[in-house]
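Hey,

Quick one before I head out. I ran the complex with FE2/S2 (inorganic) cluster overnight. Inputs first:
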Amino acid sequence: MAILSQRFAPEQCQAVAREVLAARRGQPGALLPILHDIQDRLGAVPPDLLPMIAEELCLSRAEVHGVVSFYHDFRASPPGRHVLKLCQAEACQSMGVKALTAEMEQKLGLPLGETLEDGSLSFEAVYCLGNCACAPNAMLNGELHGRVDAQELLALLAEQESRA
Ligand code: FES
């Protein structure tokens, strides 16, 4: 499903949330499916929607916020056109991902966890990509890359940008 852009207006976000909530009404354990549906359609779970979700599910706002913040995959704003994730878990740490992260932050001019202002790239942490034997690991636009270094990551990004 297409990711909607940051231009998506708050009223439109609420309209999407109302549709999702109506479609899941009465379903047991609906919170996570609702959050995933909203993120699939909006590219994020905007914090403004949490009170509406809490009210529909008879939960407190703190409970909904707790679930959203517990799962790293939920985001408060839509991702950039390209998403580069660097694994920060133990095996990748032991193979130097902290230094690689710092090098990439410097080369991209972008701190981990942020998106470039022009919306071209999000740089994110991820915690184990299931490919520990080939650490350090990265995922670019959903594609896994093992034993990466900064030079390779920059080349992969340039290749993706040339395809865009
Ligand atoms: S720790 Fe990085 S892929 Fe498992």
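Residues 87, 89-92, 128-129, 131-132, 135, 137 surround FE2/S2 (inorganic) cluster (CB under 6 Å).

Talk tomorrow,
K.
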